[in-house]
Amino acid sequence: MWYIVYMRDRQLKILNIDGVRGVGKSTQLNILANLLKRHGRDVKINQIMDREGLTEAIKNTIESIQENDNAIILNDGSIASFAIQELSKGTSNLSVESIYGDDLFDLQTLNHSVGMVNVILVPESLEYCKENIKRQRRLQGIEFIDNIDPVMQSTLIDGFDNFNNNVISRELAFKVLPVDSDDSILKIHYNILDAIESKGFYLGH
Question: Does residue 137 fall inside a structural domain?
Answer without folding.
Answer: yes
